[in-house]
Amino acid sequence: AQSVTQLDSHVSVSEGTPVLLRCNYSSSYSPSLFWYVQHPNKGLQLLLKYTSAATLVKGINGFEAEFKKSETSFHLTKPSAHMSDAAEYFCVVSRNAGNMLTFGGGTRLMVKP
Amino acid sequence: EAQVTQNPRYLITVTGKKLTVTCSQNMNHEYMSWYRQDPGLGLRQIYYSMNVEVTDKGDVPEGYKVSRKEKRNFPLILESPSPNQTSLYFCASSLGAGGNYEQYFGPGTRLTVT
Lengths: 113, 114
Description:
The structure holds two protein chains of two kinds.
Chain A: E1 2-6, E2 10-14, E3 19-21, E4 23-27, E5 31-38, E6 44-50, E7 56-58, E8 64-68, E9 73-78, E10 87-95, E11 101-103, E12 107-112
Parallel strand pairs in A: 2-12
Antiparallel strand pairs in A: 1-4, 3-9, 5-6, 5-10, 7-8, 8-9, 10-11, 10-12
Chain B: E1 4-7, E2 10-13, E3 19-25, E4 31-38, E5 42-51, E6 54-57, E7 65-66, E8 76-78, E9 87-94, E10 104-105, E11 109-113
């Protein structure tokens, strides 16, 4: 079994300040982990993925995430928020083989001017 | 342009009236799936398909049917919709199954069942 918990349903930051979106997972095998972003009225777009290579993963638009096996975490960070980052973010865990994708409940990021 | 398309984008219907939401991808992907998105629950997988004529249930298949007669199309069928199927639905495709493959999502279909 696998599960994903996004620890904050809403995060609000000021433009230019750091972003931290938290994700914890549980899995009985070595998982792949993803972050997806969903802008208003749009589909989901892949930000970055971890598939058992480097533990620090860099994605698009300046985002990165660090896989910490001991903490079962995969938090998403960005040094400086931009207004265009306002969106909903989903942490996703997947088996390396098979079809099961499990989504977290989502974190809505708001960026204040 | 590589994309996943869904139709319709918005649909309001009444309880019990059969409906189909179409999904098509132009990337020659083998793997396709349907999700529903509800507030606070993230996305939950309804059905998936590994290839033509190969489909299987996801987490929440009750009340839904799918078919995969062609590689590019994966329609979602609600034979007798009920209000608890009011949701935002996404179709997705990928080159293969499993964690190494990025999912490409359609723009979503917002369904309201009254």
